[in-house]
């Protein structure tokens, strides 16, 4: 089966968050003697594109409303990845030093049109087109409705929702940017009076998946306005839990971390990484180290961090280290905590892939008090690195972390995203840290939990076969 993934992000080419990790891993695990998975993504101006060389395999023009843009399809000259990847280069629109900005309508529409225009020239069409998030959400609509793409009508397409909070809304004034279609069906584009690419994809895709079973259920009552649509379309919706890429996230081979380790050498390995973090960020090696890694946005509960961190740090029995960026006011509050809690608190405001690996390896606990968490990869990386997750039981966090109070439990769970519960969870973790026998036993236990992609990649294949 020939599978085409179309996405705005793909690790290691361009990563803003978990979408990149998934699209950078899933095709690797789908590629085998029966299946070939390939990726199409935009060509951005970033470190990866600056450090690699590309050649053009196709050149043409695309029409976006009244305007015409040149585009190229590029491939990598060397093959550093485990799957084929194609880059849509629309120099005037996509080639920027960022992935997302506040108005991406033309950029991502051009991307989607160029990708489909190029597919039209293929000798053998793909067996399935797999779209990810709203940036590719107009593809299922165009495949079904645009006259130009009529030859694709029988190709099954699926949409994976990694995050339903972002939907790519734009005004009906821009409807002429979409290649001509039967205007009687313009309603398929609409949700709440605007063009809503995510809603259009939910309506038109042959199948819709989310990245965990619990999130699929939760979306029916909390989907940023799409609740009724998701309930109505529930017959074609499934939750498939993300995996993690064990080729990248492996404590035995990870070249980013300061000391590699296995379950057998976990104590020495984690200690060396913790020491590096404590030396670098001026923290106390004798106290448990709590970490947060991620986007500082409401979904992650980050607006509660300043108060929650302050309360826990006041007790003087824990270190907190944060790596992330996002909301300006939250960033400023987090910076302010540095002076009063010098020696037990620090924050790196920014994005740093290497540091994130060292934190997963060196921290004792990882905080994830998310309000919304479609799957969450951080808790799975932390399990793999022997770092005990502290999570709010929601979405994928609920599906992957069991509280230590339950039989076989290995994490710390709380019900709500509020300051009190975050502080109580940290207190429980401080107590657990004191009991070294149980703490060490759990660290070894969690490293063995299998969240590799093998099973989930196969679940997607089974789904593609069922709609083919
Ligand atoms: N400042 C920083 N520096 C370095 N690395 C950083 C970083 N901030 C974040 N990261 C990394 O980005 C990734 C974040 O992944 P998540 O799945 O937790 O969240 P995200 O909300 O982006 O993804 C969405 O899509 C994914 C994939 O489907 C879902 O798991 C998730 O629930 C959903 O919200 C991890 O690899 C993390 O280490």
In words, what does this structure look like?
With 468 residues, the chain is α/β, with parallel strands linked by helices. It folds into 2 domains: 257 residues, 3-Layer(aba) Sandwich (Rossmann fold); 182 residues, Rossmann fold, CATH 3.40.50. It contains 16 helices and 17 strands. The strands form 3 sheets. It has a 9-stranded mixed beta sheet, sandwiched between helices. Strands 14-13-12-15-16-17 form a 6-stranded parallel beta sheet, with helices on both faces. Strand 4 and strand 5 form a beta hairpin. Helix 4 crosses helix 5. The radius of gyration is 23 Å and the shape is globular. It starts with a strand and ends with a helix. The mean pLDDT is 97. The site of adenosine-5'-diphosphate-glucose has 26 residues, from helix 1, strand 12, strand 13 and helix 11.
SSE arrangement:
Blueprint: E1 2-6, H1 18-30, E2 36-42, H2 47-51, E3 54-64, E4 67-76, E5 84-89, H3 105-120, E6 128-132, H4 138-145, E7 157-161, E8 190-191, E9 194-195, H5 197-204, E10 207-210, H6 213-219, H7 227-232, E11 237-239, H8 266-281, E12 289-296, H9 305-314, E13 319-326, H10 328-336, E14 345-349, H11 353-362, E15 365-368, H12 378-384, E16 388-392, H13 395-400, E17 412-414, H14 419-434, H15 436-447, H16 454-467
Parallel strand pairs: 1-2, 1-6, 2-5, 6-7, 7-10, 10-11, 12-13, 12-15, 13-14, 15-16, 16-17
Antiparallel strand pairs: 3-4, 4-5, 8-9
Adenosine-5'-diphosphate-glucose is lined by residues 17-19, 21-22, 162-163, 211, 242, 293-295, 323-325, 351-353, 356, 373-378, 396.
Enzyme class: transferase
Catalytic activity: [(1->4)-alpha-D-glucosyl](n) + ADP-alpha-D-glucose = [(1->4)-alpha-D-glucosyl](n+1) + ADP + H(+)
EC number: 2.4.1.21
């Amino acid at each position: 089966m020939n599978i085409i993934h179309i996405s705005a992000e793909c690790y290691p080419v361009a990563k803003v968050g978990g979408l990149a990790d998934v699209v950078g891993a899933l095709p690797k695990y789908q590629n085998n003697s029966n299946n070939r998975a390939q990726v199409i993504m935009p060509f951005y101006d970033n470190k990866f594109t600056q450090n690699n060389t590309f050649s053009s395999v196709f050149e043409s023009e695309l029409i976006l409303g009244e305007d015409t843009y040149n585009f190229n399809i590029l491939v990598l000259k060397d093959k550093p990845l485990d799957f084929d990847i194609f880059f849509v280069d629309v120099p005037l629109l996509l080639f920027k030093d960022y992935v997302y900005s506040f108005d991406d309508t033309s950029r991502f529409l051009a991307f989607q049109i160029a990708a489909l225009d190029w597919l039209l020239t293929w000798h053998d069409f793909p067996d399935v087109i797999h779209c990810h998030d709203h940036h590719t959400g107009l593809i299922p609509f165009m495949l079904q409705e645009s006259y130009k793409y009529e030859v694709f009508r029988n190709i099954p397409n699926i949409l994976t929702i990694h995050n339903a909070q972002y939907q790519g809304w734009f005004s009906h004034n821009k409807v002429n940017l979409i290649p001509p279609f039967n205007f009687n069906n313009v309603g398929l584009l609409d949700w709440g009076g605007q063009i809503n690419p995510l809603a259009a994809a939910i309506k038109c895709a042959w199948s819709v998946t989310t990245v965990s079973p619990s999130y699929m259920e939760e979306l029916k009552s909390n989907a940023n306005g799409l609740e009724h649509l998701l309930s109505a379309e529930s017959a074609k919706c499934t939750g498939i839990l993300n995996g993690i890429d064990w080729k990248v996230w492996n404590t035995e081979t990870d070249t980013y971390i300061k000391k590699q380790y296995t379950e057998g050498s976990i104590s020495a390995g984690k200690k060396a990484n913790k020491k590096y973090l404590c030396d670098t960020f001026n923290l106390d090696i004798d106290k448990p180290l709590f970490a947060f890694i991620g986007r500082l946005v409401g979904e992650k509960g980050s607006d509660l961090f300043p108060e929650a961190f302050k309360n826990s740090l006041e007790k003087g029995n824990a270190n907190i280290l944060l790596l992330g960026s996002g909301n300006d006011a939250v960033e400023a509050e987090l910076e302010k905590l540095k002076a009063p809690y010098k020696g037990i608190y620090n924050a790196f405001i920014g994005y740093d892939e290497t540091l994130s690996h060292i934190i997963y390896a060196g921290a004792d606990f990882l905080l994830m008090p998310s309000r919304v968490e479609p799957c969450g990869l951080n808790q799975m990386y932390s399990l793999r690195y022997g770092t005990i997750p502290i999570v709010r039981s929601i979405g994928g966090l609920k599906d992957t972390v069991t509280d230590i109070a339950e039989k076989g439990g290995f994490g710390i769970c709380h019900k709500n995203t509020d300051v009190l519960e975050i502080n109580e969870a940290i207190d429980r973790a401080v107590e657990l840290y004191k009991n070294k026998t149980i703490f060490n036993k759990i660290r070894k236990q969690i490293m063995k939990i299998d969240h590799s992609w093998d099973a989930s990649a196969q679940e997607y294949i089974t789904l593609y076969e069922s709609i083919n």
